[in-house]
Amino acid sequence: MSAAAQAAALEDAADKRSDRPAPLFQPFEWVYSDGYPPRIPMVGTVELVGRALDVANGVRVILRMLEQVSIDSASCDEHCNPLPPLLDPVTVGHLLRFGISASDLLAQDISRYQERLSEEPAKGATP
Question: What confidence category does residue 126 fall into, taking pLDDT thresholds of 50, 70 and 90?
């Protein structure tokens, strides 16, 4: 059974156990022609700062969405009906892992960059 089929089965089971309306968000699926994510190239300072900003902004959006799920689960409308969740539990797990992976990749980029800097002699430095 494919990962998408398993996720769909889990979502169906979660929907049947709950009185809550269906989630509003439908996840984006990454598709790579060779089946694997692309390798991340070595980056320079400007590229690293840009990537760090992009990852930080992306992780911030994910965390805000996950916080909203938590807030919505304790909320109801004016008739005391539960609000539809922004995300289903399976997608929450996917987004958590995505945020962790993105942070890990950024940390690896920074570590490689730091190693490269430590190997290069500092310009204008005296021994």
Answer: very low
CA distances from 111 to 47, 49, 68, 98, 100 (A): 14, 13, 33, 20, 16
Total-model pTM: 0.56
Identify the pLDDT of residue 22.
73
User: At 75, which amino acid appears?
Assistant: S
Mean per-residue pLDDT of the chain: 77
Cα angle 45, 48, 53 (rounded to 5 degrees) comes to 125
Give the pLDDT confidence score for residue 82 in this predicted structure: 86
- How far is 112 from 41, CA to CA, in rounded Å? 10
| pLDDT at residue 26, rounded to an integer | 63
The first and second tokens of residue 64, run together, are 């805000």
Dihedral in degrees, nearest 10, Cα atoms 26, 28, 33, 36: -110
Burial of residue 95 (CB within 10 Å: 0-12, 13-18, 19+) is buried
Q: Which residue has the tokens 């089929």?
A: 5
50 residue type, one letter: G
